[in-house]
Specification:
Number of domains: 1
Helix content: 40-55%
Number of strands: 8
CATH class: Alpha Beta
InterPro entries: ClpP/crotonase-like_dom_sf (IPR029045), ClpP/TepA (IPR023562)
Protein name: ATP-dependent Clp protease proteolytic subunit
Low-confidence stretches: none
Pfam families: CLP_protease
Largest sheet: 8 strands, mixed
Mean pLDDT: 95
Shape: globular
Distance between the termini: 20 Å
């Protein structure tokens, strides 16, 4: 944690899972307590992604903070990390930043019967709907556009991210 242009700044450069997000939220709460007057929070992100359920939860947590959020893609924002980035009111990326958009998958452990597999498939479908709806609401593109990109597995460069509305601005430093 430090200050950037007078704003509190925090870095997130981990995989997204319950443990990493719990720690991140704790750090955010400490930061907010230390700087209750802060009107803007800067979150630098470089993450391979991870658990989409946890990323959706983190998106909503960030959107409910009482300050402007600036998210910065410092290198790569992949998979579920796109949702944390998407929570920013201002979304910044560097000219070499990339975003990896792909379909939601789930690693299964154990033995599954038909009903269990169907339940998992329904959860993946529901999460796909949630993610594409959030992307549509926060960008310039439709759910259909995002669903299509997810099905292909696509790496967006900075200029493509700005054109789609995923990113707001490219910085060159």
């Amino acid at each position: 944690m430090k200050m950037e242009n007078g704003f509190p700044k925090i870095n997130f450069s981990d995989s997204i899972n319950s443990s990493s997000i719990k720690s991140f939220i704790h750090t955010l709460e400490d930061l907010c307590a230390q700087h209750p007057e802060a009107k803007t929070l800067v979150i630098n992100i470089s993450s391979p992604g991870g658990d989409v359920d946890v990323a959706i939860e983190m998106f909503h947590f960030l959107r409910n903070l009482d300050c402007e959020i600036q998210t910065v893609n410092t290198s790569y924002v992949n998979s579920a990390a796109v949702l944390i980035y998407l929570a920013g009111d201002v979304r910044i990326c560097h000219s070499g930043s990339t975003f990896y958009i792909h379909s939601i998958s789930k690693r299964l452990k154990g033995v599954y019967d038909v009903q269990s597999l169907l339940r998992e498939a329904k959860e993946i479908s529901a999460n796909t709907d949630i993610v594409t709806t959030l992307l549509e609401q926060r960008t310039k593109k439709s759910r259909r556009y995002w669903k299509n990109l997810m099905s292909k597995g696509c790496i967006l460069k900075a200029d493509q991210a700005v054109k789609s509305g995923l990113a707001s601005i490219i910085i060159n430093n």
